[in-house]
Amino acid sequence: MGARNHLPAVSRRSESSDNLAGKRGRFMESPSVDCGVSRSGSGGGRRSELSKRSEPASGIDRIIGGTPVPSQLKYPWMAWMVNASGQFTCGGSLINDRYVLTAAHCVSSNPSGTYMVTLGDLDRSTSSESRSIQIAATAIMHPGFDVPTSLNNDIALLKLATPVDFSANPNIRPICVSSAAVPNPGDTGDAGGPVMFRTTNGTVLNVGINSFVIKGCFTQFGGAYIKTANYVDSFIKSNTADALWCPAA
């Protein structure tokens, strides 16, 4: 299956943020980091450091039907968020240095609130990871989201209070945003997380957002996924002009 990359059109990194003000649809590119790079290996000599664990975290369930991820470098864009009360809310995916893509229903109960986003965390069943980071974030919910009637436009962005420093956090990378459509269902527990597709050259693309599935992931019931490509120009690009987008590998 072919995939057409929908990374926003980029401008040179030398263009200042001030010059970008009001130029919706123009973006700065980070030349040193590729998006959609997934490494299933151990990460060389860093495996022991990346695999450190602490005591189990209480009250956190695993995704139904999920399997352990062999390396923290396998899905380096995965994020999870908690609300102001410290309650786990949803998953998400890092799409550039400043924004995490998630579902609108994850933030609809408190759209103006502050959330804490964790990146670089391999296992939610533990209370910490040696190389994970936590960044406060505010929500940008799609204005057309119409819960609880139909969950149309179930898409939102989390704007990080500080951009991710990819040089200091080599285990964290953004995923590419794309128009590819694949029949790959999610599971209960990863609402807001990405539907992913790997191209023939190995680049991993975000082609959808998990909106909802029937509890238990019963195969006779369908799930709902937001097609990312429908919102690249109308929502994602128009709200992320201050970010550094990474080119596809």
UniProtKB/TrEMBL annotation:
Residues 63-249 form the Peptidase S1 domain. GO terms for biological process: proteolysis. One of its GO terms (molecular function) is serine-type endopeptidase activity. Gene3D superfamilies: Trypsin-like serine proteases (2.40.10.10). Residues 1-65 are annotated as: Disordered. Residues 46-55 have a biased composition (Basic and acidic residues). The keyword Disulfide bond applies. Keywords: Disulfide bond, Glycoprotein, Signal. PANTHER family: FI16631P1-RELATED, SERINE PROTEASE-RELATED. Belongs to the peptidase S1 family. CLIP subfamily. This is Peptidase S1 domain-containing protein. The lineage of its organism: Eukaryota, Metazoa, Ecdysozoa, Arthropoda, Crustacea.
